Amino acid sequence: MVMQATRRRPPLNRRDSWMKVKDPAALRRWRKQQRFSQQQLATLIRRSQQTIHLLETGGMKTCTEGVAVGIAAWLGVPWEELFEAEEHDVLPPVADSIHATPPATSAHRATNAQRPKRHYA
User: Fold this and answer.
1) Domain 15-89 adopts which CATH fold?
2) How confident is the model at residue 7 (pLDDT cuts 50, 70, 90)?
3) HEC readout, 51-119
């Protein structure tokens, strides 16, 4: 019996890699030269036809590294010819202290102390 190796996901890092389309028209030319329709290329990289359309028309300026490498591989072109790498730092979650109520200042406390308390029945 042959054991198959299980694929593991790469560890999550604190950077997201995005690829910027250098020239949307060049992407379209390469696709047509390889005789792929938008739908065929989209199916090969497991995305929608609309994604390919948006990349080719400039409606979508960036895509994930996986999409860019997949497109370049199926078109037989080095990814550097079609895309530019852009790395963005992943922002840490918003700290609770930013959204917390600011500490009351002495002037604020004095103003609140002078206000009559309202009691609702």
Assistant:
1) 434 Repressor (Amino-terminal Domain) (1.10.260)
2) low
3) HHHHHHHCCCCEEEHHHHHHHHHHHCCCHHHHEEEEEEECCCCCCHHHHCCCCCCHHHHHHHHHCCCCC
